[in-house]
């Protein structure tokens, strides 16, 4: 297993390099540049801006300098749009915010989703099942761009319970709405996957055997059904976790959290190459890492799996 | 207003002491003097030399102070400059500075302005607004920006700590009006050199404005607090100013209604309802921006648009009344000139198109198109490009429908902002949506756009127009020149002018001192105060 992890981590390096090169090339293919604006800049100013940010170098040298800066100095370069800040600063400011609300939303989605899905499967075709399925469908058809304004309208404007947006690490009242809005549709998906997987496991031979031996139902569920039923859920959770902690542009827009989800979209629209690359690398690295975590979890859940 | 009157007003203003707005009789100040306003997006930079945004300028106006400020109606009043003299030829302006201090207690000197202005034109700074000093006609600015001269050759010098001398290449009637623009604000050399690009971050930033930077959480909020070292601090009532970023305008309105914001822009189309429900809060005031569809008359543009009759027909075909009354519904005005109607000293020409009914316009447009050879047998097909935005889309669809009865088939071309800008600058379009906002309260900020060497991306060119604009730089009375320039635009139609903007906002009535008669909407938190509810 340890050798497998090392092998996977070693493979991550060329994967990330490929990601960097491809992203770099794609970015430069898009029309317009970071300094394209309403009033064309005087040629000398444009030349100086390009020189300052190394945009007058050949593309291969730009890529080389960029990768070198990251490897040697862990420096993702300056932002072209926010000249007072570096990409490292922008990520350091935005990522903890996104990580906080994303992790909490992930936990909420998993806890509620798995509980709901399990309860529905155990009591199949009961009122509890119908309620759980109903909640899941309801949550699924309310995407976060609908949930977010609804939450602000209800909890801020009508009830006045929560601030309508902004962010504070020390005040959880700012976290609640982003977490609810981000988690609901994922929670619904997790509940549905858990329910169908659980139903399949509950119908399998080893569960029938366990019940036939007189094992208490609670033990059957917790010890013999839940663990194998989690396999499809876990494979779903890996990419979900990455997408949740690397930011949601909808959440950032509606709740003004300052997370990196919106920063990423803005960087693409503004052709802020360095910020776009920085966030792409972050998302790429986290995707590789959490796919590995999912694989390790797989082996833990199902000891038959060997790498 | 004539130039003579403008100058007199400016000189009179300079002779008066500047004073912040104070509570009126019977008003009781609130215990908490905090003003919280809406920002659509993150503030990109707090460096006056690098800022390019209106929202950034709003913050910079609180953190720094230039030679002049705008008053409540948009006229110039003293800022750091205490008095001003102009040489007979209008080429040398000399300012005497007041006893002002930076927020760290250091005195503000003429050298700080010299350093700041040289820094703006220094190509190494790579200021995107370096052209503003060219526009001010400061000696050698163009050559320095082009790298042909060194920044120390800029026509600005500190005669002594209190005296700043500025030399211009040509008499510039609007020169004093440019002096409240953020690009001209002084910056503290010592601090800039000590911290480099990070000099504008909280804890580092030293300003000379009425407020100091307390915190800046990018994309979330920015907080400013009163500067005790400001020269007029005793007349500043407001203690804290907070800009809150809300990327969605509708959510911004919700947060205003929830009491979290004191000012927010009203989303398009909601003004009629809100002005009925909140008559003391919903405002619609002139705002110095104009919206147009620019025609590409360059070699790369379609042949049809090179024919003035086609351009005139397209302009006539637009039903501007429907656009402002039915689509925008926020007090905007139909545009028959490029310069915003409320710009100081500007007299709109009596454009024929403005006096016609829409039926008359359509009839005339049909005739013009027929004369140009277009009609049912030879329909005109053009594309209209606009950048991604719901309002631009609505207007483009409306324009498409307005032009349809004329036999003009329009393909709508929606692209993102950078692509839109890139294509406009490379003349890769037929017609393109555009808007221009004034940099200062004078007509040249609009009219210079259509000079042959201006920014006009349709590449329209007219020798008489260029001469008028050149003459206006030295004319005693510029109004007739501007009027004639607008007449040429109305005849030649390099663009179909669509509407003049309004600022359509909700303002908490307990906040006083916001300028409602300043067409550039330049506001100063030092003039604000909050009364008890």
Structure, described:
The complex is a heterodimer of chains A (307) and B (533). With 307 residues, chain A is mainly α. Chain A is built from 12 helices and no strands. In chain A, helix 7 packs across helix 9. The mean pLDDT of chain A is 89. By secondary structure, chain B is an alpha+beta fold. In chain B, the strands form 5 sheets. In chain B, strands 11, 12, 13, 14, 15, 16 and 17 form a 7-stranded mixed sheet that branches. A 4-stranded mixed sheet of chain B has the order 1-10-9-8, with helices on one face. In chain B, helix 9 packs antiparallel against helix 12 (358-371). Chain B starts with a helix and ends with a strand. The model of chain B is unreliable at 1-9 (pLDDT under 50). Classes of the chains: A mainly alpha (307), B alpha+beta (533). Chains A and B meet through helix 2, helix 4, helix 6, helix 10 and helix 11 of A and helix 7 and helix 14 of B.
Offer a quick outline of the entry.
Chain A contains 12 helices and no strands. With 307 residues, chain A is mainly α.
Most residues in contact: chain pair:
A-B, 51 and 47 residues
Low-confidence stretches of chain B: 1-9
Question: Stretches of chain A where pLDDT falls below 50 for ≥5 residues?
Answer: none
End-to-end Cα distance of chain B, whole Å, is 39 Å
Give the overall silhouette of chain A. Answer: flat
Task: Calculate the mean pLDDT score of chain B and round it.
Answer: 93
- Helices and strands of chain A, in order, run as HHHHHHHHHHHH
Number of strands of chain A: 0
Q: Structural class of chain A, please?
A: mainly alpha
- DSSP helix fraction of chain A: over 70%
Rg of chain A, Å, rounded? 24 Å
What are the SSEs and their pairings?
The complex is a heterodimer of chains A (307) and B (533).
Chain A: H1 2-29, H2 43-52, H3 59-73, H4 87-122, H5 127-140, H6 144-158, H7 176-202, H8 205-212, H9 217-245, H10 249-255, H11 260-270, H12 273-301
Chain B: H1 3-15, E1 34-39, H2 54-63, E2 68-70, E3 76-78, E4 81-86, E5 92-97, H3 110-121, H4 131-135, H5 141-145, E6 156-160, E7 163-167, H6 189-195, E8 211-217, E9 221-226, E10 240-245, H7 249-257, E11 263-265, H8 271-277, E12 282-295, H9 308-317, H10 320-328, E13 333-334, H11 352-355, H12 358-371, E14 380-387, H13 390-403, E15 408-415, H14 417-425, E16 431-437, H15 444-447, H16 463-472, H17 479-492, E17 495-507, E18 511-512, E19 529-530
Parallel strand pairs in B: 1-10, 14-15, 14-16
Antiparallel strand pairs in B: 2-3, 4-5, 5-7, 6-7, 8-9, 9-10, 11-17, 12-16, 12-17, 13-17, 18-19
Helix pairs in contact in B: 9-12, 16-17
């Amino acid at each position: 297993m340890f050798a497998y992890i090392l092998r996977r981590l070693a493979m991550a390096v060329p994967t990330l390099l490929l990601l960097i090169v491809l992203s770099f090339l794609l970015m430069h293919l898009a029309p317009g540049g970071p300094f394209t604006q309403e009033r064309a800049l005087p040629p000398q100013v444009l030349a100086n801006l390009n020189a300052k940010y190394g945009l007058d170098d050949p593309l291969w040298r730009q890529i080389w300098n960029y990768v070198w800066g990251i490897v040697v100095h862990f420096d993702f370069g300056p932002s072209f749009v926010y000249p007072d800040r570096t990409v490292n600063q922008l990520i350091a400011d935005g990522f903890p915010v996104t990580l906080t609300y994303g992790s909490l939303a992930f936990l909420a989605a998993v806890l509620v989703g798995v509980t709901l899905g399990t309860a529905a499967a155990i009591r199949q075709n009961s009122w509890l099942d119908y309620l759980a399925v109903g909640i899941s469908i309801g949550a699924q058809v309310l995407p976060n761009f609908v949930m977010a304004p609804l939450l602000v309208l209800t909890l801020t404007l009508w009830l006045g319970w929560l601030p309508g947006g902004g962010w504070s690490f020390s005040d959880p009242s700012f976290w609640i709405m982003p977490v609810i809005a981000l988690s609901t549709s994922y929670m619904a998906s997790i509940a549905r996957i858990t329910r169908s997987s659980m139903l399949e496991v509950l119908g399998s031979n080893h569960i029938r055997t366990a019940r036939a031996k007189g094992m208490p139902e609670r033990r059957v569920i917790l010890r013999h059904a839940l663990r194998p039923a989690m396999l499809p859920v876990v494979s779903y959770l890996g990419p979900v976790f990455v997408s949740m902690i690397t930011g949601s542009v909808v959440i950032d827009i509606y709740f003004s959290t300052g997370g990196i989800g919106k920063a990423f979209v803005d960087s693409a629209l503004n052709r802020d190459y360095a910020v776009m690359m920085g966030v792409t690398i972050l998302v790429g690295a986290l995707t590789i890492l959490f796919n590995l975590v999912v694989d390790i979890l797989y082996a833990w859940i199902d000891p038959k799996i060997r790498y | 207003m004539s130039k003579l009157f403008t100058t007199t007003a400016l000189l009179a203003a300079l002779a008066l002491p500047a004073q912040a707005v104070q509570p009126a009789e019977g008003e009781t100040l609130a215990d908490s003097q905090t003003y919280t306003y809406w920002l659509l997006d993150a503030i990109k930079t707090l460096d006056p030399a690098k800022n390019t945004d209106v929202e950034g300028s709003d913050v910079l106006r609180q953190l720094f102070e230039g030679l002049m400020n705008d008053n409540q109606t948009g006229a110039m009043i003293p800022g750091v400059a205490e008095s001003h003299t102009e040489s007979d030829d209008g080429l040398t302006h000399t300012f005497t500075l007041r006893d002002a201090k930076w927020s760290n207690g250091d005195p503000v000197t003429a050298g700080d302005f010299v350093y700041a202005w040289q820094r703006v034109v220094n190509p190494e700074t790579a200021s995107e607004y370096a052209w503003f000093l060219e526009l001010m006609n400061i000696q050698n600015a163009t050559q320095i920006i082009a790298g042909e001269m060194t920044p120390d050759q800029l026509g600005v010098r500190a005669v002594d700590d209190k005296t700043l001398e500025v030399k211009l290449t040509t008499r510039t009637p609007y020169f004093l009006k440019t002096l409240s623009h953020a690009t001209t604000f002084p910056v503290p050399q010592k601090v800039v050199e000590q911290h480099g690009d990070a000099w504008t971050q909280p804890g580092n930033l030293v300003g000379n404005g009425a407020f100091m930077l307390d915190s800046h959480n990018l994309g979330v909020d920015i907080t400013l607090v009163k500067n005790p070292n400001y020269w007029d601090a005793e007349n500043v009532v407001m203690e804290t100013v907070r800009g809150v970023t809300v990327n969605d305008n509708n959510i911004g309105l919700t947060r205003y209604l929830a009491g979290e914001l004191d000012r927010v822009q009203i989303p398009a189309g909601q003004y009629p309802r809100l002005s009925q429900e909140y008559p003391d809060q919903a405002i619609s005031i002139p705002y110095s921006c104009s919206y147009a569809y620019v025609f590409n008359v360059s070699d790369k543009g379609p042949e049809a648009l090179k024919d003035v009759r086609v351009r005139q027909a397209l302009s006539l075909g637009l039903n501007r009344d429907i656009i402002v009354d039915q689509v925008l519904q926020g007090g905007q005005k139909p545009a028959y000139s490029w310069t915003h109607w409320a710009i100081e000293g500007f007299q709109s020409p009596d454009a024929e198109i403005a006096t016609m009914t829409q039926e008359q316009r359509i009839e005339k447009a049909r005739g013009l198109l027929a004369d140009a050879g277009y009609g049912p047998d030879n329909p005109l097909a053009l594309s209209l490009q606009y950048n991604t935005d719901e309002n631009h889309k609505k207007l483009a669809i409306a324009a498409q429908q307005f032009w349809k009865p004329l036999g003009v088939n329009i393909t709508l071309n929606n692209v993102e902002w950078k692509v839109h800008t890139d294509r406009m600058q490379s003349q890769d379009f037929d017609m393109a949506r555009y808007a221009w906002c004034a940099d200062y309260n004078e007509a040249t900020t609009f009219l210079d756009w259509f000079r042959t060497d201006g920014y006009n991306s349709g590449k329209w060119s007219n020798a008489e127009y260029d001469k008028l604009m050149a003459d206006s730089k030295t004319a005693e009375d510029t109004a007739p020149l501007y009027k004639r320039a607008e007449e040429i635009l109305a005849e030649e139609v390099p663009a179909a002018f669509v509407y003049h903007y309004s600022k359509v906002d909700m303002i908490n009535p307990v906040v006083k001192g916001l300028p409602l008669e300043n067409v550039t909407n330049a506001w100063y938190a030092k003039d604000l105060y909050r009364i008890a509810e």
